[in-house]
Design a protein that fits this description.
The complex is a heterodimer of chains A (458) and B (99). Chain A is an alpha/beta fold and 458 residues long. Chain A is built from 18 helices and six strands. Chain B is 80% helix and 0% strand. The C terminus of chain B is likely disordered. Classes of the chains: A alpha/beta (458), B mainly alpha (99).
């Protein structure tokens, strides 16, 4: 009986996943998408539990219980600023599951050489390397270790040799029965390569890398589908793999860089070269009450948030500023650069958390035309994404990177802790313009100061 | 061999479908999209159940399967819950008018 129902259950689960991704395209339907995705997953689990070859339930149910007991509090207790870390951690667990299943399949000895073994090799390679890479990304995002790129001489050669060695052993296992040491060696190399992959990645490149790891976890699941001859796994894995891939391509484009450039850390070396040339030049600065009076007399304001806003947890104060200004009839919009923050769409989530309506959050292409008609551009914790050098200086490492045209606003105000250069290590021409005011201080405190002044002057 | 060939077609079509669908997602929702697709990749839970539930599995296989079930479930639960938690925060109307 169940043999006849099972394909239908899996088919429905696949439809659920496809609709889940489809409904994600609009905030109005997105929550429905999550529900249909959950139903899909539930169907997949129930359908699998009902399969006749599954006879031993005890440990499965205990495992499901433990996983839920850890996962639920993790999702509810993590602060919103920690979403990138949580996502990285979640990738690590998903990938580890794929890798362990691949290992178990291998030692069962039932996987034939050739195509099935090839799928198993891909599954375990991507599974193990994504596990360590995601754990390292988590450690960097959580600041358990330095977020700057960690590089050493000959790094790319070492990393590529490790990957090549893993692929060679993998190829050997596909072609003929390999000796006993081959598989453990293969696993070790995959784990090692994952670490090598993320070591040279700096904080600002995290959006690309997290998206890429997401893609790897999906492809690993799809490869498992080939090993187990399970189409549901293939469909879900392929959806996930392409979603992650396209997001990381979008991120690369937003930084005007290629995949290889992000992964092999050429940027980090350029940056260290550029730091030395930063010269001391005079800037104009302002106090919170001066900033408040400029904002008070403006008619339109565009706020440009960056990772600094997340670090300072300034989003709720920014919401108060937004309320104070809109109450005065001032038009306030937010300009979101695609790579602002530590994962794709990071800023949107934080501003939504602070209850700022999402129709006020505009993407780069939508809002760049508005800057020339805007009275004040308020930059909070963003740096390289508003650097006009990206448009003008052909020798600059960030030349050609699409930026938000903050410099074209009538007045630019930049909240910043100090004059230190951003991730790219490049001086920002924006700070020295005649219409720019530097607001030195912690983003949260400074915005709070402005809000207080605005309240007092009313 | 035929079933692999079929599988490859399914993979190709699903990957293209994924590209087309994800291309239409606005950058506004890129973070929830990523955590949703992360949760979907935890479909590995199916493989984990199959491995650990087999009749004459070795202890080694059961242990690996058990850990894999925990990992994949954690991934599913955390992925979906955080996605939902984020999406609940996205509101269109002015906050004043909703009260």
């Amino acid at each position: 009986m169940i043999e006849n129902v099972l394909p239908a259950i899996y088919l429905l689960a696949s439809v659920g996943f496809i609709l889940a991704v489809k409904w994600m395209n609009n905030p109005a339907t997105a929550r429905r998408g999550v529900i249909i995705g959950e139903i899909g997953m539930l169907l997949a689990v129930i359908g699998t539990l009902l399969r006749p070859e599954v006879v031993e339930y005890r440990w499965i149910l205990i495992g499901l219980g433990i996983g839920s007991a850890i996962g639920a509090p993790l999702a509810y207790l993590m602060p919103m600023t920690a979403v990138p870390q949580l996502t990285a951690l979640s990738h690590a667990f998903g990938a580890m599951a794929s890798a362990l299943i691949g290992t178990a399949e291998f030692y069962k000895g039932s996987v034939p050489l050739g195509f099935p073994m090839g799928a198993l090799v891909i599954e375990t390679l991507l599974g193990f390397l994504t596990t360590t890479a995601s754990i390292l990304a988590f450690a960097k995002l959580q600041e358990l270790m330095p977020t700057r790129p960690l590089t050493y001489k000959g790094q790319n050669v070492v990393s590529l040799s490790i990957l090549t060695a893993a692929i060679v052993i993998g190829g050997w296992m596909v072609a003929s029965p390999a000796p006993q040491w081959a598989f453990p060696a293969f696993i070790t190399l995959a784990l090692l390569f994952g670490i090598m992959l993320v070591m040279p990645i700096g904080g600002a490149d995290m959006p690309t890398v997290i998206a890429l790891l997401n893609s790897y976890a999906g492809v690993a699941a799809a490869a498992m589908g080939f090993v187990l001859n399970n189409r549901l796994l293939i469909i879900a894995g392929a959806l996930n793999g392409s979603a992650g891939l396209i997001l990381s391509i979008i991120m690369c484009k937003a930084m005007n860089r290629s995949f290889t450039n992000v992964l092999f850390g050429a940027f980090g070396q350029l940056a260290t070269a550029a730091v030395g040339t930063v010269a001391q030049r005079p800037v104009r600065s302002a106090t919170p009450d001066e900033a408040a009076s400029i904002l008070d007399s403006a008619r339109s304001v565009i706020v440009i948030p960056g990772y600094g806003m997340a670090v300072a947890q300034a989003q709720h104060k920014i919401r108060e500023l937004y309320d104070a200004l809109t109450k005065r009839g001032i038009d306030v919009k937010f300009a979101i650069h695609p790579v602002a923050g530590r994962m794709p769409g990071h800023m949107n989530v934080l501003l939504a958390e602070a209850d700022i309506p999402y129709d006020k959050l505009l993407e780069m292409d939508e809002i760049n035309g508005d800057f020339p008609n805007t009275d004040v551009a308020l930059v909070i914790g963003a740096n390289d994404v508003v650097n006009p050098l990206a448009r003008t200086d052909k020798t600059s490492p960030i030349y050609g990177t699409p930026i938000l045209d903050a410099d074209r606003a009538r007045t630019v105000m930049v909240i910043k802790r100090s004059m230190s250069p951003g991730f790219a290590g490049i001086d920002n021409e924006l700070y020295y313009m005649n219409n720019t005011l530097m607001l030195f201080g912690d983003a949260k405190n400074f915005v709070a100061g402005i809000v207080k002044e605005l309240a007092g002057s009313h | 061999m035929q079933s692999y060939e079929f599988g490859l077609y399914v993979f190709m079509l699903a990957a293209f479908l994924g590209f087309e669908l994800v291309k239409r997602v606005s950058p506004l929702l890129h973070t929830p999209l990523m955590s949703l697709s992360n949760a979907i990749s935890a479909i590995a839970v199916v493989g984990a159940i199959l491995i650990s539930g087999e009749k004459d599995a070795s202890t080694f296989q059961r242990v690996l399967g058990f850990v894999a079930v925990i990992c994949a479930t954690l991934n599913v639960v955390a992925g979906y819950l955080i996605t939902d938690r984020m999406l609940r925060m996205f509101r269109k109307r002015e906050p004043e008018k909703t009260k």
